């Protein structure tokens, strides 16, 4: 099969699970004998733009005509069987859908977050879950400045969501939702259920697996409010006040709370902040863990670190909402705590570190869960199945730039896909 992957790569200064997924899927397909090419832009390149170019960038977020032309030409030349779209923000835009229609090539899209119904894609505001824009206009996101705390920065995302929502519905043959929890939210928002398939991300077989009881509890990820970092600090302080759990907390990552985390961890024997790890260091840190903790306060669409822990035979303590409830079998392969509750998180951490034999059983169950649902073999099967379904039901994605009003898809099949709802 000939596949063209379309992706706007995230800034390399921050670790990106999405970038990793895109690269790993491409490698998996190539190893299976499929031909994979890439059409991409890099957010790193924004820094090298002229002042005028940077100023014009928000105008291209909803629609980038140059990308449409370039991609359509490439599709006509290379004639792939299917286009696989990942992230299009900020340099690609939904114009990639029109390019697929221009060249009559079917498209699939992986939904890595909730940008189809929420401008920043997090379903969170002020540290709490928020669905105010789901099924309705994205104006609340603008009013609250949900993207980077800025109303101005949120406007291009809100405009793109509004004017392109039905273009997405008609221009993509198959959406890959990375969890059933994510799919449920999107179906409730009005997206076409028949085009939404659950395809969990896979994780490559790790080069290191846990062989002993573990040396630390590990938090591995972005240091941000939505990831539950402050919640974890509060829970760990509660445990420390009661005498600790016998192993230190290791925190690996970077992000907006880095200075706060570093100051909190300084001069403590029970906490180690190690900064940003490379992939090999991450795998080693997971394999040496008593447990991996994922205390996100937002509704995670997936939870890659949870599955990476499974692959290494390590149980997880995670928040009992979003995708975590389908990834972690509570009491079997890990423990689920009440979202946003530091006392509940502390209790789960105490249990999973105190009961060593039970911890080992959970680790073995986590590994079995990985083998059954998240291995490369399973990932390849589901990926190719989705491609074949898209090829069998090919459709167009649009003939012109979207008008700045609701209800017009601008697509060849848009009139057959008119629906009520609040997603693009």
UniProtKB/TrEMBL annotation:
Keyword set includes Glycosyltransferase: yes
The UniProt transmembrane annotation reads none
Quote the SUPFAM superfamilies the UniProt record gives: UDP-Glycosyltransferase/glycogen phosphorylase (SSF53756)
Domain Glycosyl transferase family per the UniProt entry, residue ranges: 216-369
Q: Any idea which GO molecular function terms this record carries?
A: glycosyltransferase activity
Tell me if Glycosyltransferase is a UniProt keyword of this record. Answer: yes
**What residue spans carry the region label Disordered?**
391-424
Q: Return the Pfam families for the record.
A: Glyco_transf_4 (PF13439), Glycos_transf_1 (PF00534)
Q: Name one GO biological process term.
A: carbohydrate derivative biosynthetic process
Which keywords does this Swiss-Prot/TrEMBL entry list?
Glycosyltransferase, Transferase
Gene3D superfamilies assigned to the protein according to its UniProt record, in alphabetical order: Glycogen Phosphorylase B
- Residue ranges of the Glycosyltransferase subfamily 4-like N-terminal domain? 17-203
The protein depicted here goes by the name Glycosyl transferase
